[in-house]
Amino acid sequence: QVQLVESGGGSVETGGSLRLSCAASGRSFSEIEMGWFRQAPGNKRVFVAGVKWSGGRRYNAFYADFVKGRFNTYRSNGGNWVHLQLNSLTPEDTAVYYCAAGKDLDGGSDAEISHWGQGTQVTVAS
Q1: Do 16 and 89 meet the contact criterion of CB atoms below 8 Å apart?
Q2: Among the listed residues 83, 80, 74, 103, the one whose alpha carbon sits nearest the alpha carbon of residue 30
Q3: What is residue 105's predicted lDDT score, i.e. its pLDDT?
Q4: How many Å separate Cα 105 from the centre of its chain?
Q5: What is the reported pLDDT for 109?
């Protein structure tokens, strides 16, 4: 069974940090884009960060503008895990964070997202 399983969510105070992880299983995802979306209460799900395979063992990360250098994403375990380091968190970062795999993650549409994780809650207290 192909699935993405997230871990690492939780509650922190403003200015704190968290690291989210997503493990892919059931097939190799090493050459597929993987990344993160988030959905805050009452809002639509939006792209946060992604990592694209660029050949060999090389990966390139890309981010939504609102990340502003606070978040860092990277792959591990042969490209089948993706992580999101969240730093300098604010209450506006409170959301359910979803791992995703597919194509064109930052393209503004979910049409080419082939797999989603179940989501993990991040809550930032003021």
Answers
A1: yes
A2: 80
A3: 95
A4: 10
A5: 85
pLDDT single digits (tens) 65-112: 999 799 999 999 999 999 999 999 999 999 999 999 999 999 988 889
CA distance linking residue 68 with residue 111, whole number of Å? 26
- Cα separation, 119 vs 100, in Å, equals 10
* Rounded-to-integer distance, Cα 77 and Cα 117, Å: 18
Amino acid code (one letter) for 75: R
Q: Beta strand pairing status for 95-102 and 33-39? A: antiparallel
Spell out the residues 6+ positions from residue 6 whose beta carbon is closer than 8 angstroms to its own.
Answer: 20, 21, 22, 97, 98, 99, 117, 118, 119, 120
Q: Please, how many CA atoms are within 13 Å of residue 111, restricted to the half-sphere of its CB?
A: 3
Say how many C-beta atoms besides its own lie within 10 A of residue 79's C-beta.
Answer: 18
- The proportion of the chain whose per-residue pLDDT surpasses 90, expressed as a percent, equals 92
Distance CA 29, CA 79 (A): 7
The amino acid at 10: G
